[in-house]
Amino acid sequence: MIKALPEALPRADGRPPARYVTLDGMRGVAAIAVALFHFDIYLMPHGYVAVDFFFVLSGFVLYRSYLPRFREGLGIGRFMAQRLARLYPLFLLGLMLGLALALQQILVDDPHAPASAKLATTMLFNGLMLPSPAGLPYYPLNVPSWSLFFEIVANLALIVLIFRLPRLALVAICVVSAMGMAPIILDNGSGNIGALWGEHGIAFMRTAFSFTLGVIIAMLPDWRRAAESETPRASGWLGVACIAAIGVLLALPVPKAWIAGYDLAIILVFSPVLVYLGSRTEPVRFAAPAAAFVGEVSYALYAVHWSFIEPMRAAVRYLRISPLPAATLFLAIMLTAAWAAVRWYDLPLRRRLTAMLRREARGARPLGA
């Protein structure tokens, strides 16, 4: 069984690694919300704005993790290689599962099957992690991958620009992005926008606002100073409350006329507040293993769940399972699949890629270094 450890990252001030079990749990619950939204929108009606929470969390974690290395001379190429080594394996697995489903549709003459030429074009572009011009979604075989492309864009912006900007400039990015995206989301009627061609503007603004705000949160001081060997966060029910809150926010049904405003509230206020609180408290001890586990499998769950949806829906219809038991079964299968993907595919491949990058880095050092 995989050992689901809390995330351990170097602190921005150079102190020893900090663990963020609450953030692990929140990330896992948000990934579950996305999967349930795609499987049955009525069970998680605001699951799509979990993406904005992910961007805030990513900005926070990457700033805390990589700022010390940037100050020590980490270059753009090595940083992006490290990020691709983390993101690409599961991205590729999700893409290949989508390809397998598409080929199966072609074999059975499914009217929804993609044309062969479009499928080839999609594989060419998506295989390079680039949006495909062959369909309306950027990633027709695995639609949720759109946010991974913008994550890569945000990562590049971090190492090229954000690390070098003063805090006031980062605040300006957040303000301008918020002012740009708010009227678009209100006009659209919800925050479920950004995954299709023609929506790249709002996708960039959502990414810029949330990712940059996550960086700003990472710059803020902790609530208390601790000894060098300790974590500055206390354990308690606030950590559990943060984990539960993200799920409640994404699941709460609201009247149709309120959806856009409610989504904006999650994007602009609730997600960053929860990341701030969650980064400064830990859950009570008995809840920590579950939080660590769902955090460990969260990216795999997000990356691979899309291709399971239609087969699961077909099975549910055939077996005449009611919605709540069907969603429970779907979630159990997806968590198991995500755990297996992490243990037998992602972790071994990432270890090899990391070892390869380290060997290349040692080989690139000048003589006498």
UniProtKB/TrEMBL annotation:
Which keywords annotate this record? Answer: Membrane, Transmembrane, Transmembrane helix
Q: Which organism is it from?
A: Novosphingobium chloroacetimidivorans
Name under which the protein is recorded: Peptidoglycan/LPS O-acetylase OafA/YrhL
Read off the Pfam families from this record: Acyl_transf_3
Query: What terms describe the molecular function in GO for this protein?
Result: acyltransferase activity, transferring groups other than amino-acyl groups
Q: Where is the Acyltransferase domain?
A: 22-342
Kindly give the InterPro entries that the UniProt entry links to this protein: Acyl_transf_3_dom (IPR002656), Acyltransferase_3 (IPR050879)
Top-down, what is the taxonomic lineage of the species of origin? Answer: Bacteria, Pseudomonadati, Pseudomonadota, Alphaproteobacteria, Sphingomonadales
Q: Which residues cross the membrane?
A: 45-66, 87-107, 146-163, 168-186, 201-222, 234-252, 258-278, 290-309, 321-342
